[in-house]
Amino acid sequence: MQVRPYVLLIACAVLPRALAAQATKAPAPPAPPAASAATSTSPVADALRQAQQRYSRILIAAAEAMPADKYTYRPTPAQMSFAQIQVHLANEGNDLLCSKTAGVAAPQRTAADSTLSKEQLVARLKETFTFCETAFAHLDDSKLNEPIQLFGPNPFSRAAAILITVGDWADHYSQEANYLRLNGVLPPTAQRRSM
């Protein structure tokens, strides 16, 4: 007796009914967003501002969540310590990238270093995110193709600088989330939100 023809016959008899039943149970696809009269004329700059608000919140929360005695923690000798990540975010990540991306001067302040206390590094991180928010306030999409000198000899478009800035925040949040987990601390984005 050949099993294959019987299996095929059963599948052909059952499959259409199963698919039809599945289709009646499937939720309706979401309705497309309604067009609004206030459609943004600068969706890229608006998205950058939204990303800045989100990463400001979660990167500061991560910096606050790590115990002070773990700021020297690094998973391997080749990686930055948690404190060095805060320094990088404050100096190069926010002051440099936000000023270059927005086309405004960076604040004149002494560079942060990893010898600062947790409280000082958190305060500095907050200052730099406040600077980014101010710097991005008047940014629009009219000059996305404008070349800017970000780092190195080759210019980048302002659009590329926006992507690099958001990518830097995402990269360092991921790094910090791993450091937190390795030290028994639940990262901010993994915690339940209160209602």
Question: What is the β-strand count?
Answer: 2
Q: Please give the share of residues in helix.
A: 55-70%
> Numbering strands along the chain, what is their spatial order in the largest sheet?
1-2
**Number of H/I helices:** 5
Please supply descriptive tags for the structure shown above.
single chain, mainly alpha, globular
Question: How would you portray this structure in words?
Answer:
The protein has a single domain, classed as Four Helix Bundle (Hemerythrin (Met), subunit A) (Up-down Bundle), CATH 1.20.120.450. It has 5 helices and 2 strands, in the order ααααββα. A hairpin with a 7-residue loop joins β1 and β2. Helices cover 56% and strands 2% of the residues. α2 packs parallel to α5 and α3 runs parallel beside α4. By secondary structure, it is mainly alpha-helical. It has a two-stranded antiparallel sheet. The N and C termini lie far apart (62 Å). The N terminus is likely disordered. The longest helix is centred in the C-terminal third of the chain and has 25 residues.
